[in-house]
Amino acid sequence: AEAAAAAGGGGCSAAGGGSVPVLFCFSVFARPSSVPHGAGYELLIQKFLSLYGDQIDMHRKFVVQLFAEEWSQYVDLPKGFVVSERCKVRLVPLQVQMTTLGNLTPSSTVFFCCDMQERFRPAIKYFGDIISVGQRLLQGARLLGIPVIVTEQYPKGLGSTVQEIDLTGAKLVLPKTKFSMVLPEVEAALAEIPGVRSVVLFGVETHVCIQQTALELIGRGLEVHIVADATSSRSMMDRMFALERLARTGIIVTTSEAILLQLVADKEHPKFKEIQNLIKASAPESGLLSKV
């Protein structure tokens, strides 16, 4: 998905604090809400997604517009705009239709491993299987030179990443309390990797940390691939509806084998045999994919 705010002149002051009332308009809908004082383009996009996620076709380009009293009509959101006072904004789909092909190349891909921690072991359905698949993905990432970012949710209380998962070579292993993996340190790490276009995301829980991470990433213009056989929840119903919702927003729900073979792309790839051996050696028959 890609959303673009057209460049314009000026912007509002970011001084102050608290929240500011904003009317969010999309198509025939208009919903009052609020954003923090000083919120910019990315937060506006996230709010649009939270309000209208089921109606927005993420395969299209959009422009965000601001209602300008002096013109009595909407104008393209100025570059550097921040919310400093009560205002009205709208999301306008452009005519250009994009197709999300979901192509993956090692040079433009990052793996996100989310909260695969010891205390989740007894509670998460098929946890042993997603550990096995997660380890296979991380081995594949090392073979192909793909950066790996790992988070641990409140490790003081929930423990570290399970011992079965080898984090050797991970670019970042970060504790968090926020459900989404999109922390300032993660954004800084992404900025250090040139040409990143796609994130391969897996871990727990599908309907909480995975879902919130995926939505934040597509709000930043990244393509997200969720590995269905490497993500789970305590409840299969929560997992199923989360994957359905995410697929409707343009996120690609796929499998570990599809990911790894797409990344090598050719039998003649120098790492093909090693990737093939990974797939043959560690494919669990859990029935998890029958519950997507």
Automatic annotation (TrEMBL):
Residues 109-257 form the Isochorismatase-like domain. Coiled coil: none annotated. It comes from the Eukaryota. It holds the Pfam family Isochorismatase. SUPFAM superfamilies: Isochorismatase-like hydrolases. Belongs to the isochorismatase family. This is Isochorismatase domain-containing protein 1. It comes from Urocolius indicus (Red-faced mousebird). The gene is Isoc1.
